[in-house]
Amino acid sequence: MQVPLQFEFQSHQTFASYYAGQNAEIVGQLQSLAAPNGEQQLYIWGDTGSGKSHLLQACCQHAKAIGMDPFYLCLTAARLPPPAVLEGLDDMALVCLDDLPVLAGRADWQQALFNFYNRHRQNGHKLVLAADCPPKFLPFELLDLKTRMGWGLTLKIQSLRDDQLIAALNHKAHFLGFDIPASVGRFLLNHYVHDLPALWLLLDKIDQATLAAKRKLTVPFLKQILAGEL
Q1: Model confidence over 89-131: pLDDT tens digits?
Q2: Is the distance from CB of 116 to CB of 142 less than 8 angstroms?
Q3: Phi, psi of 141 (to 5 degrees)
Q4: What is the pTM of this model?
Q5: Of 55, 155, 65, residue with least CA distance to 96
Q6: What region, left, alpha or beta, does residue 142 occupy, with left being phi > 0 and alpha being psi -120 to 50 degrees?
């Protein structure tokens, strides 16, 4: 078998760095995927920034650690590879496909995914799929493919409440190695609660700035970071 792309770990995207909150069942299902009695197919959907990519990456890293052969592919519209990338992946023990709706209007990709799906499932391997909508709302013209996307267990990522967002911020910050005071948490919540992807990216920037300046995080210091003064 020749796999055309290399699997790249995102080392910070693990189950340990993910704040589960109300989504403990999803984490549990992904962790047990490698077990003989685990689900063969999981379909995870949720809003942008809810952590779908993080969970798929964590699933692959967990599988790799226990001896499975995982592969992760994000279907990014700006750099969507040719559908031939799926050739040979039906022999992989675990395949995670992220951002399925990108394949809307791509008849070549949909047919290739349909063919891969049938071979991979027949081989008894595990598949994890992620999208921002349930399977029945996938914008696929190939209806047989849309049907197959819903054959496994479908789970929705529950949105975090405000108090859980604060807890998630503290969890991620602690994993990175710094603390978020309550005043800073409230400031971030008020300014970024509706833009979760930007919020998670900002944490990395805060981590780098606090390390470089060797300062504790405060609201004035955070404003300097946001203003690009550091």
Answers
A1: 999 999 999 999 999 999 999 999 999 999 999 999 999 999 9
A2: no
A3: -80, -25
A4: 0.84
A5: 55
A6: beta
Q: Rounded CA gap, 215 and 227, in Å?
A: 17
Cα angle: 50, vertex 196, 183; to 5 degrees: 125
C-alpha pair distances (Å), 87 with each of 3, 139, 206: 8, 23, 41
Alpha helix (H) residue ranges in the chain: 24-31, 52-65, 107-122, 143-149, 162-176, 182-192, 196-213, 219-226
- The sheet with strand 94-98 has its strands ordered as 70-74, 94-98, 126-131, 41-45, 153-156
CA distance 169 to 75: 27
Spatial separation of the C-alpha atoms in residues 31 and 20, rounded to whole Å:
13
Burial of 198 (0-12, 13-18, 19+ CB in 10 A): exposed
Tokens, residue 184: 């800073």
Structure confidence at residue 4 (pLDDT) = 39
